[in-house]
TrEMBL record:
EC class name: lyase
This protein's name: carbonic anhydrase
Source species of the chain: Bifidobacterium saguini DSM 23967
Function: Catalyzes the reversible hydration of carbon dioxide to form bicarbonate.
Note describing how the cofactor binds: Binds 1 zinc ion per subunit.
Matching SUPFAM superfamilies: beta-carbonic anhydrase, cab
Keyword set includes Lipid metabolism: no
Biased composition regions of type Polar residues, renumbered to the chain: 1-16
Entry's family note: Belongs to the beta-class carbonic anhydrase family.
Binding locations of Zn(2+): 114, 116, 167, 170
Lineage, opening ranks: Bacteria, Bacillati, Actinomycetota, Actinomycetes, Bifidobacteriales
Amino acid sequence: MTQSDFEQNMQDIQNKNENEQTAPAAPEQQAAQESQAQQPAQQEPPTPQPAESVPPTSPLPSELHESTANATWSRMLQGNKRFAEGKAEHPWQDKETRHMLTDGQKPDAAVLSCSDSRVPPEIIFDQGLGDLFTVRTAGQMIDDAVIASLEYAVKKLHVSLLCVLGHGRCGALEVAEREYNELLRTITAEAEDSSETADIMDDLDERIAQSDSIVLRQAGISVWQAREAELDCLDDIERVHVAHTIETLVDRSPVIQQALASEQLMIVGARYQLDTGRIEVLSF
Ligand SMILES: [Zn+2]
């Protein structure tokens, strides 16, 4: 994600916020729903077969369908639709699949998501064993271990898709927002006059980066970026945080940069909605 992509993303979020006041569904959601509706029948992934019909010499489940990034993402969104509608198929979770996978894995997608107990990627995308390489931290925060894990998925497992998944009512971002507000109060109290406050506010991102709080250092920048764009509600902060997370991942990982440049990897941003069970697509 380039800087201009990021700015476009921020603009899209801002436009979405304005549209939500008059439209029942967000444009991104409509696009996602339309893309599912327009999916030609012949491109739909094969319906997982009953375990009894899978011979021992079958290829790994993820080799049975198109492994391109778009096909993978479409299949994940279809799985999410099944899950949200109470029609989950729980594919590839039988004993035979488990045995087939003992010799190796070939997942099509990596997912970086929150550790929140309500947001397990395999369940909300209705995927099975061997389908998703998942990395989960509170607020999908990034450290060296996260980057090394995702680089393994990209470089060694050759995943074609990386999904950065945020979600509604994220406790980690609530903490980040609270600590951000406390930092603002501290700055205001420390300053002797309004001009000094303005000077400190100009360097607010640096104050956040130097904070003792890991949560504030990691997610406070997302709160700051959202506020700078006049996006105040937690929903929007969560969307900005997904964009910021993607930007940070690309910035910090030469492996991911190289995979993007050679078109071997696609990164998508998404946000899971707790109440509907649906995935809100933030970027493709
Ligand atoms: Zn969370």
